[in-house]
Structures are given as structure tokens and as C-alpha cells.
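Predict fold of Succinate-semialdehyde dehydrogenase/glutarate-semialdehyde dehydrogenase; 476 aa.
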Amino acid sequence: MNNPLFLEKAYINGKFVEKNKMFEVVNPATLKVLGSVPDLGVADCQKAIEAAHTAWHGWQETPVGKRCQLVRRLFELINQHAADLAEIMTKECGKPYTESLVEVEYANSFMEWFAEEGKRMYGETIPALKSGTRLATIKQGVGVVAAITPWNFPLAMITRKVAPALVAGCTVVLKPASQTPFSAIALAKLSAEAGIPKGVFNVVTSKDSQGIGKELATNPAIRKISFTGSTSVGSTLMAQAAGTIKRVSMELGGNAPFIVFDDADIDKAVQGAVAGKFRNAGQTCVAVNRFYVQEPVYDRFAEKLSEAVKKLNVGDGMRKDVQVGPLINSAGLKKVEEHVADARQRGANIRMGGERLDGLFFQPTVLTDVPHDALIASEETFGPICALFRFRTEEEAIDLANDTPFGLAAYFYSNDIFRCQRVAEKIESGMVGINTGMVSNASAPFGGVKQSGIGREGSSYGLEEYLEVKYLCYGE
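Predicted 3D structure, encoded as C-alpha cells:
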């Protein structure tokens, strides 16, 4: 690929690392090899951890203004190379190029936000209860941070962790998904150009996710682990991290409901549904998985949604007219097929789509009259499928929305302000979109409840995840 940020290397202690053992990365749209990166092992990961630990003391002592200035410089470089980053992203994960450009902007919003917010890591003075003492608190970075990121947002899921860690005075060892390592390496190249010192940011590429993950979770030099991915893997990492009492942040699986009440603006609901469902071909942790539509407006919503879905073009994300790209791999495609077949077998109707296309593509699909015992009602599909369920009352809709072990994002449409407040309070979810299908924002806390995770990313809450509060007691 003729791209100045495309490197087939890892990045440890300020150096780009090569190795004889490599693994290939495939473009899911073309099924052709995009390139290869080093298949690093546990010993290499240990070197990265050691480098990060060595760099930590100097980085922590670097004035916060300087740390924020360097992160700001990285923000500027990302802006300058937005097109290069978007091209890499589209070719390694398949999302349309226009979506990739939006992700670059979104990813970079965390760099900008935390470059400013890092200057406000305030401590406090505490009134003493007796004479002769003075009490205060300060905030300091937790130490070396391990970040493990997924393939579906190969840049934004990194910056959402790395930006607050760096301004807090932490150093980072990053393990990107093996399907999408090139965005991470591109960011490493820009971090070096920005002047971030060696060892402060390291990228370990590997196919050995279990081995590297265990090392990051159990190595005593790592003080915190931040993971975005499946609930099952998150649970394993939490158990492993418990041995050294690490701080953890977990952004895990979702099963987002999308409720359309009979007083909703149907056209706006359809617009929000398309935005919330088909971004990255439905392969996002906050993608709508279950559409609950109230009886009086069910048929109208289904018709309008089908009309909108019919207009979506499927294909290689580098084509300008494409809105829906491929599934990431054959396993993802198989799950989508299984969910559609199961719903049909249980009585659901295919209103639109429903067929596999050549390669890893699947038609944008609308299923109507889906029964509540279908697999798609309880499992995250991670594909371009709209499953429409019926409901009668507000109480029923809330019960259905909450009938899941997950609670990451939820969405609903209503023009009744009292209902909006009432339903938002009752839905068991870390984030609620009210009359919108998009909730992500660098200045807002991103995270879930129940089995969807622990902790928050973005906002001032996201910065606190990387800070320890130290209490100072002065005696006279």
C-alpha cells in the first residue's frame, strides 16, 4: 500500500520492531492479503512492559502541561493524516471510507478533549477536625497501563484509552486486534513524530491473544488493564488481573434495544434506526440489536425502515457509493446467517434482504414479526440485520428492553417529555439515546452496566479511571 503511515512492524521502546515470524492481515472486502506484521510472543510483550515501566518514572515527572502539549501535537498530526489513517482503516476492517473518515475525527476528539482535560486533574484541601494538622489530596497516574482493543473501531478504541492515560502520566502497552494492527502502528508512528518519549507508548502485535492477554493481566508491573471486547474474554482478564489486584476498565458486549413508541416521529425514528444499526455493517458494540415497535405504528415503521434499508449500497468500502461493507470474517458471517435462519424458522418474515452475497457480504435485512424466543432476541448479532418485535404498553417495552444480562446502550423515540424521562430512568443501560441513534461523544461518559462492563471512557470520568487519589496529612 502506498501510504506513508502503513508499516509492517511493531513498536517497542521507541523503535519499530521486525521479526522473522509474521502473520498476514486480510482485507475483508477483497479477501486479499493487505500486509503482514510481527507475530510477537510473551517474551516480546515482557520487553514492552519493561520499557513502559522504565519510561513511567520520567513521564510521570514530566509537567502535565508538557504531557498535554505532546498529546495536542499528536492530535494535530492525526488531523494532517486523516486521509491516510482512513484508508488504512477501511482496508483492514472493511468499513466504508466515509465512515473511516468520521472515525478518525471521532478518535481524534479524545486526543483534543484529554489534552485540555489533563490540565484539570485537581486535588483538594480538606478541613482538619483538630488543630495541628493540614489535610490535602493530589491525583497521580496509576502507572503502566495495558490496553487491549478490538477490530471494529481500530483507531477510536485506542485513542479513547491512550489519550487519558498519557495526560495522566501513565505509560501504555497496547495490544491491538490481530485483524486490524495497522491503525495502531500508524498511530505509533505519529506519536514518535509528535515527540512522545520512547517507552511511553508501545504496540505489541500478535496472534497469541490468550498468551499476551494473560501476561498483561498478570504481570505485576502493569497497574491497570483497559479492555474493549467480548464479555467472556473480559471476564477471563478480570479473573487473571485479580491476582495482582489491578485496576480494570471493561467495555464489553451489548444487546441494544431500540424502542419506537406510538407518539414518536416515525421518520426521525427510521433515520436514527439506520444510523444506529448499519454503521460498520452493524458491527459495533452499541449497534441496535432489538427493535421494539408499539402496535399502532408497527406496520408504518416497518415499511419506512424497509424503504430506507433498500437504498443502502453494499460493497468494498473504498468505493464512494458504498454505505455497508463486509463482515470482518467468516465466523461473523456465519453468525448472521444463523440468526436469520433461526428467526425465519420460528415464524419471522423477511421484509428486505436476508441473503448472503459473494465474499463476506450480507444484504442489509429487515425481519418483521420476530418472536421473542428467537436467538437474535438474546444474542448480539453483530451484523446488518434489523429484527422488529411488537409490544403494546410502555411497561412491556421496558421489561423487554431490560430482559438481557447486558446494558451498554439503549435507544428510544417518543415526543412525550414525561415518558422520555420516565423510560430513561427505568432502562438498565449505561447510555440512553433519546430521539437519536448516536450516543458517542468524547465529552460524555461511555460505558455499561451489568455484564456490559465496568468503568467509563471519555469525559472527566474517563480521566479518573487512570488516576489514583493520594491523601497528604501535614503535622505541625
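The mean pLDDT is 97.
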